[in-house]
Amino acid sequence: MARMLAVDWDRHEARYVLGTTGAGKVQVHAVGAVSLVDVSEGGSEPQPDLSGSLAAALADEKIGRLPALIGVERSSIELLHFTLPPAKDSELPVLVANQAMRESQLIGEQSVIDFVPIDDNPAAPRNVIAAALSPEERGRIQATCEAAGLKPARLLLRPFAAASLFVRTASPAEESCLLVNRVTDQADLTIVVEGRPVFFRTVRLPENADEAQLTERLLMEINRTLAAAPQTHLGGETVECVYLFGRADDHQDLMERIRDDLYLTAKVFDPFDALRVDDALVPEDSGRFVPLLGMLLDEAAGSHAVDFLHPREKPRPVNRARIAAIVGAVLAAVILGVAYERWSTWSEIDAKYDAKKEEYDKLKKATAKADDLKKLVDGIERWKAREVVWLDELRDLSLRLPSSRDVVLSGMSLSLAQSGGGTIDFEGLMRAPGVLVNLEKKIRDDYRQVRSKGVRNRRGEREYTWTFDTTLSVKPRSLKAEKAGRERRYVSHLPPEEQLAARSPPKAPDPKRDEPGPKSSKKRPGEAKETFVKASAANVVDQVKKASP
Fold it and tell me: What DSSP element (H or E) covers 314?
């Protein structure tokens, strides 16, 4: 959003509107008008002090030196309507300048000429509205702005700006209409067809006339304008409605006369209402400010019909030497850019390589140390792979042996094997040969192989009538099996209820049962086997320690 100042003037007053423009919208901040003060120098006739009056008015607003849109009135320019042969838009500036100098002797080569094409078809004759500003008038306007402390950004034609505001905001239902805008002692009359201004007139009104006389004069000029408008511009249509700029109270009599005398529809167009300006900022006779509001709205839209500071010009001839120089400079810049990019890329790659090599050397040293540690760990793992947990083996063996009523062990030895695992040799007494078959069946699994060396009969014995000598080969448990849990490994062959009993922790001793008293001489079943296992545990530990490297 940019703050802009729109200013125009005539013989009686100077007007200004301060607003913010951007994104196709206008926000009005201040609206004002100042009457011109007459001054005289050296006995000459009094002249209106335009720059001094305008500077004083703007100083009260504390606006500062903002970019200004300057409105030029119709009396300061030459306005022409003519038709050109079919031509492209790029060819129009030359054609318009030549035709304008032919039709008006007041237009010279130094005049600033801008134009608006009424139609857009390059294959058909081009109807054009041309406006010419003399260099002397342009110099006077710029000097006035300089003296008033204004910085002109554009020199715009007042009737075009007023018509543009109507076209952009009113959206009339009629295809052709006449716009009437009274500005002090002048009136701008513009015919708009299908949203495009096609004909302009500015008439001067009598001074010191009453309202009835002004109404009569305006009615007559409206009728003349309708008669003077070329039918080629109207496209065979007639004006359907007359729009009066301002408020309804300002033009009530004129609206009635238009309806009664000209048999046309008459409406009022309020510019401040169209832009939604706060009522506190709206001045009296608001139609005077329509061109200023139109200038700001065109600036917000980024498009002006006529601008004497930036007129339409013919395309400049192609400067091949300049193009070659630009192309050469671009190629040189591209080559330098590519070379710099390659150099920076290789520099970055070299830096990354040095960093990776340093990291590689550090990892290589760490890897050598890790290899030595790995060899030591592998040796320990190989040694542990041969290890047999004798206490677990003895516990599992005691759970698998038949009851003491059938078997009694009389001796046992445990030893490690060179290839891993170990061997358990045990001998004992049994009630019958079938007990040995049951014993081997219970002990044999994926980790144990059982082989009985001999079975002998003990004659004369009543309970344990047979002896046996058995060798049990034990494989070491794998690390995976060890992680699964020792209880699960060693008691998985038991029925569920016995597995639960084996996994349960031993019960705390009952003080009442452990009290001193007469001991029973009769042993409970299996007591001899359990006693043997407990007595052998200490010997097993000693043997494991001796066998360990």
Answer: none
- ∠ CA 133-20-55 to the nearest 5 degrees? 55
Residue 217: the pLDDT is: 92
Same domain, 367 and 470: no
Burial of 26 (0-12, 13-18, 19+ CB in 10 A): buried
Widest Cα–Cα separation across the chain = 173
Query: What CATH number is given to the structural domain containing 160?
Result: 3.30.420.380
Share of the chain above pLDDT 70, in %: 83
Beta bridge partners of 243: 179, 267
Give how many domains the chain has, as a whole number: 3
> Domain for residue 514, yes or no?
no
In the numeric block, the tokens 């000693």 are attached to: 542
End-of-domain residue from the set 331, 349, 378: 378
- Which H/E stretch holds residue 152? strand 151-157
Enter the pTM of the model.
0.58
Q: Kindly state whether residue 520 falls inside one of the protein's structural domains.
A: no
Residue 30 has pLDDT above 70, yes or no: yes
Joined together, the tokens standing for residue 441 give: 């069946």
For the packed helices 433-443 and 390-400, what is the interaxial angle rounded to 10 degrees? 130
The C-alpha atoms of residue 247 and residue 265 are separated, in whole angstroms, by 16
Which of 218, 293, 543, 530 lies closest to 395, judged by CA? 530
Q: How many CB atoms lie within 10 A of CB 20?
A: 15
Count how many Cα atoms sit within 13 Å of the Cα of residue 59 in the half-sphere of its side chain.
9
Cβ atoms of 8 and 288 within 8 Å: the answer is no
Instruction: Find all residues with CB under 8 Å of 542, minimum gap 6, and list them.
Output: none
Quick one: 374 and 395 in the same domain? no
What is the rounded distance in angstroms from the CA atom of residue 389 to the CA atom of residue 533?
15
CATH value at residue 499 = 3.30.1360.100
Average pLDDT of the chain is 82
Tell me the Cα Rg of the chain: 58
Q: What does the pLDDT look like over 198-209, one tens digit per residue?
A: 888 889 988 888
From residue 397, alpha-carbon distances to 400, 409, 442, 489, 530 in Å are 5, 12, 9, 13, 11
Instruction: Give helix then strand counts, H and E, for the chain.
Output: 16, 19
Q: Is the dihedral of CA 467, 469, 475, 476 positive or negative?
A: positive
Quick one: tokens of 92? 């129009």
| Separation of alpha carbons 543 and 150, rounded Å | 114
